[in-house]
Design goal:
Organism: Photobacterium lutimaris
Order of helices and strands: HHHHEEHHHHHHHHHHHHHEEEEH
Structural class: mainly alpha
Largest sheet: 2 strands, antiparallel
Protein name: DUF3375 domain-containing protein
Number of domains: 3
Shape: flat
Number of helices: 18
Length: 425
């Protein structure tokens, strides 16, 4: 294996040649020297020589010679890398995807076992294994989706003169061998394995984060568990979306292929003969029932419908006068209490430590809303001093109980009561 730097540099220098060889590798697993020279001469840079380019690709291990042959093949790592960048993936196997999904169960059990025995190494190993499986499954789903899209596009753009069974043969095989098993696996019910296993893995990781928090583990360890749980949750959503997209892409083509099977081809041929030669000569009349029914079916309206229609014809709408608008009597607002008298009583009772308690004790017959309104107005009255208490208090009214910071009402500094002034006079 060549050095990674050398391989990467040669890919940069001769990318067009390697990309074309990767596309040809779908049809030709090995390349003769003559084919390599043709591709290199067509896609190399202007200043490079063919032999120099070929030697560089061989020395960088991009092209590998085959034993007991003069042919060459592309390095499998290079093929996967180029196809990944150009979005030209080969469709994977549903069995490989199923095996990776089943491996999530073992990794989840490893995480739970590490939590039970308080083994951080076992817990970390299971979580890392889950992360690696999630990464591989996500990569395979993305590659398989792109491969299915490409298969559908090739089937649609194929020559229409070719029978549809041959054009859509790969579509039918992919749907039966990959899409249907993947849909069964992605089922969120009892028959599926993808959704329940990922859900259990997510629950195990969330439990691990909570337990590590209670044990006082390092923040980095808890953050790693939480990030892996996010990856599992995203994979659970992306898996079902990709499966639905693949099914929506191939299902119309599959139905089209089924409609144009051999039976439909024979029927189309027979109909074309009828159009060209007519029914008598284009269709074999022997054995067909050449008769028709002479019975005439009549339909007439019943008497109930006729009576109803007659009532509709004679219908005359009756006019209904609207009542004239009348002015509603204006009612004055209810005065629950004489506020002037209330203020005089409050001024005589000063100082008051709790205004709400004083109102509750002296005006218990008033509704709760009126008591609250009076409380707020008396607090803002400028003829006395209102001070808000530091601690809260609760007072039960007629229907509700209010919790508040009570206001203490005092006389303004330098003022005297009204009755004292009158007595002095």
């Amino acid at each position: 294996m060549a050095a990674p730097k050398s391989l990467t540099f040669q890919l940069h220098q001769h990318w067009e040649v390697v990309e074309q060889l990767t596309r040809l590798s779908r049809e030709f697993p090995t390349f003769e020297l003559r084919v390599l020279e043709q591709v290199i001469n067509q896609y190399k840079s202007k200043n490079a020589e063919s032999n120099t380019v070929l030697t560089s690709l061989v020395n960088a291990d991009i092209l590998q010679p085959i034993n007991r042959s003069s042919d060459y093949q592309l390095n499998t790592l290079v093929v996967d890398f180029v196809r990944g960048l150009t979005q030209e993936h080969e469709l994977g196997l549903s069995a490989v995807l199923k095996a990776r999904v089943d491996a999530i169960k073992d990794a989840t059990s490893q995480v739970l076992e590490g939590l039970d025995v308080a083994d951080n190494d076992l817990l970390r190993t299971g979580a890392n294994r889950l992360s690696e499986l999630v990464r591989k499954i996500t990569q395979q789903l993305t590659q398989d989706k792109q491969a299915i899209f490409e298969i559908a596009e090739l089937a649609k753009s194929a020559d229409t003169s070719v029978p549809i069974e041959r054009r859509y043969r790969e579509v039918l095989e992919v749907y039966d061998q990959y899409v249907e098993p993947m849909n069964e696996m992605m089922d969120s019910g009892l028959g599926g394995s993808f959704y329940p296993l990922l859900e259990k893995a997510e629950e195990a990781l969330d439990t691990a984060v909570d337990i590590l928090s209670m044990r006082g583990s390092l923040y980095q360890q808890r953050l790693a568990m939480r990030q892996i749980a996010y990856q599992v949750k995203d994979l659970r959503y992306q898996g079902r979306v990709i499966a639905q997209q693949c099914a929506d892409t191939l299902l119309p083509l599959r139905e089209e292929a089924r409609q144009h099977n051999q039976l439909s081809a024979v029927i189309s041929k027979q109909l074309s003969q009828v159009r060209k030669k007519g029914l008598a000569r284009g269709l074999n009349a022997e054995g067909l029932p050449m008769w028709k029914s002479s019975r005439v079916t009549k339909i007439q309206l019943g008497n109930e419908v006729r009576e109803l229609m007659a009532e509709f014809l004679d219908f005359e709408p009756s006019s209904m006068p609207f009542p004239e608008e009348e002015e509603a009597p204006t009612s004055s607002m209810i005065n629950w209490v004489d506020e002037e008298l209330l203020r005089e009583q409050l001024a005589d009772s000063l100082p008051v430590a709790n205004l709400m308690t004083w109102l509750r004790g002296n005006y218990q017959h008033l509704p709760d809303a009126e008591l609250l309104r009076l409380y707020h107005e008396l607090v803002r009255d400028p003829q006395w001093q209102s001070t808000l208490g530091a601690s809260s208090s609760t007072t039960a009214l007629n229907t509700v109980a209010v919790t508040y910071h009570p206001h203490e009402i005092k006389m303004l500094t330098g003022s005297t009561k009204t009755k004292d002034v009158e007595n002095a006079n």
